[in-house]
Write a structure and sequence with these properties.
Length: 336
């Protein structure tokens, strides 16, 4: 018998993949809710680990009649982006298993998406519970590109932008919590003009001409940063495969507590839970493309390794023929 999500109840479909349309809707909501996914570049993932090689240092030359043409000595760089499985567990009434698969996931869609994008943003921005070797705060600190927050947000953000400009890069967006908005409204530039413009007519809010992506409530770690200013063309994310799910009926949810702060026992509570998993990827291509405004006692930790590696002993005509060796690119300038 052909599976039909509109007529099959959840009682008869306790595990599997979320139907394509509903899964696509959830992923769309994740992308809309995530500050990182709003700003960063999407990269197509066809396998769990994607490596890519690119050149830097290629030049062009003026050539006079009869003169020898100069040749460039490019540096080959390698970056790696890896998808990791993320799981969320959301309790719900056992009665909801009587719904069709379609109606059940329409009901649960907002909660699944919110859990996914909050968890992803926490990992990508701050390294919170993260399987990724990088985070935004880690890149900014590794590159020594952090500004200690002051009462003057114009100076703070302008100082963060200067780090990128020192590396011939342009900042093209800001990630920040909404709690910063009142500080932006009260700050003027050197000519006494407002530095903040509220969102209007489908135009995002901006600060000093840079669009702002507000982070979802509960995802920002104020002990580590106040804003991220970046060239987001060098920040990548990807999503591998569809969303899988399974219905839990007997488990005790140690990560979900009731009103008395006790773990929820599904059987005792006459509840079930949906466990949903998907596999997002994240990487920063260039550490010097990220700067941060941080509190004076910031708790952020630098990434252990640079974002990209030099590829040595490599064939210029076949850069993927040899393995990458260890090496580093420049990691920016000193903290301000």
């Amino acid at each position: 018998m052909t599976f039909n999500p509109d007529t099959t109840t959840m009682q008869d479909a306790m595990n599997g993949y979320i139907p394509t349309k509903l899964g696509t809707d959830i992923i769309t909501d994740v992308k809309t809710g995530s500050a990182i996914m709003k700003l960063a570049k999407a990269r197509v993932m066809t396998k769990p680990v994607e490596e890519f090689t690119f050149m830097s240092g290629v030049g062009a030359y003026w050539v006079g009649e009869g003169e020898k043409i100069q040749t460039s000595k490019p540096t080959w760089m390698k970056g790696t982006i890896e998808a990791h499985k993320m799981a969320v567990i959301i309790p719900t009434s056992k009665e909801n298993l009587k719904h069709s698969v379609t109606n059940f996931f329409e009901l649960m869609k907002p909660e699944i998406a919110e859990a996914f994008y909050k968890k992803f943003d926490q990992a990508a921005m701050f390294g919170t519970g993260s399987p990724y070797p990088q985070s935004l705060i880690g890149s900014a600190l590794l590159a020594k590109q952090s500004v200690v927050e002051t009462a003057n947000k114009y100076e703070d953000v302008s100082g963060a932008m200067e780090f990128l400009e020192d590396n011939d890069l342009d900042a093209n967006g800001i990630a920040a919590p909404r709690s910063q908005r009142r500080k932006y409204r009260s700050t003027k530039d050197e000519q006494g003009l407002p530095i903040f413009t509220s969102a209007h007519d489908n135009t995002p809010a901006d600060l000093l001409g840079l669009p702002i992506a507000w982070t979802p409530k509960g995802s920002w770690d104020k002990t580590k940063a106040n804003e991220f200013v970046a060239n987001w063309d060098d920040v990548y994310y990807g999503i591998l495969d569809a969303i899988e799910y399974s219905i839990l009926t007997e488990a005790t949810l140690t990560t979900v507590v009731d009103e008395n702060d006790k773990p929820i026992n599904l059987a005792e509570s006459d509840m079930v839970a949906i466990k949903a998993t998907f596999s997002p990827a994240f990487m920063v291509l260039r550490d010097e493309s990220v700067a941060a405004v941080v509190p004076s006692d910031g708790k952020g930790v630098a990434n252990k390794k640079p974002a990209r590696r030099k590829v040595v002993k490599h064939s210029i005509l076949n850069p993927d023929s040899d393995p990458a060796d260890a090496g580093t690119g420049d990691t920016g300038t000193a903290s301000k």
